Amino acid sequence: MKVNGYNIHYQDRGQGEVVILMHGIFSSLQTWDTWIDELSKNHRVIALDMPGFGLTGGPTELDDFNEEHALDAFETFVNKLDLNSVSLAGNSLGGYIAARYAARNPGRVNKLILLDPFGYPQDTPWILSVGTFPPVAFIGNYIQPAWMVALNVAWVYGDSDRVAQEDYIRYVHMNLRPDAKPLYVKTLKMIEARAENFEPAPFNRITAETLLMWGEEDAWVPLELADKWMADIPKTELIVYPTAGHIPMEELPEETVKDAALFLRRGLGAFAQRMD
Fold it and tell me: Fewest CB within 10 angstroms: 24, 46, 67, 141, which?
């Protein structure tokens, strides 16, 4: 689908209430494979390569790529699908875009699932500072070795032994997409700028029931940031996965999709006793 200078690549499977799955930085819709298979049994599930990543790639002009441009593109994507009411699940930067959409369109989001979402001021991991250091960033526009991509994938898992070979290959191949490397460098700079932005977040405008899912071993967005989300969003619960890292839906797919399906079916009430 042509949207705001992007060529959005997406899957649309199943029937029923709509759930849109939004991956994080440097990833693609395949990170949700298990979720798609399971949730599409009872829902219409739409998973997209987010603006800037996967087979969607960047906009026509690289200078156009920023968080506002990505948010506007996602909103246009939803509108072009003629979806007036959706549930969203987003990880990392995808979680940030999902939360921004839910805050901007409170009447259009039924339920919201945020997995290790990015969005509040925080200390950033050392590798991000290295990646945005001007000489390194300049070289990174042209050269990002496969071993470095694989190392980063292993690092975002809580247990690197869980990384499947096909996932290593997928991340490396997406990095080889034309124009991916400079966009990845710009993404790191965008993340760094957001992490240093202390303007109040708009997340208190979210009215949808929200389930936070967090890997306790997340080295990119630490678990303690969950407190900020829970303080701002009125109807929120948190599930922590002790051995998982930054992308629990990929690292622990069966466990996380079971919780997601229960939430979509019964809401936060299904977790009341568990949280107690």
Answer: 141
